[in-house]
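Recall the central idea of this unit: under ordinary conditions, the amino acid sequence of a chain determines the structure it adopts. In this exercise we apply that idea directly, starting from the sequence alone.
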Amino acid sequence: LTDSMVTLVPMLYMIMYVFANFPSNWILDVKGIRPGMIIGSVLTAAGAGIRCLVNSSFSAVIVGQFFCAVGQPFILNAPAKIATYWFK
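Accordingly, the structure predicted from this sequence is:
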């Protein structure tokens, strides 16, 4: 376990936001806010469950963090979409 692997855990959120932002915006626009929020919630819950396996291996933490990081843009981009629909 190196220092760079431990540093990767919180940085994964910022790295994956760049790549997951565009698909999440597309899903929130085309499919709707509710399916987008469900996808984000499921990914975040699955990531949290996988991160609970930290005692088995540290790679489970990285994989769980990846799922949470991919689900984050769905949750963070939804309020802007709600405001856009509400205040046309």
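The radius of gyration is 15 Å.
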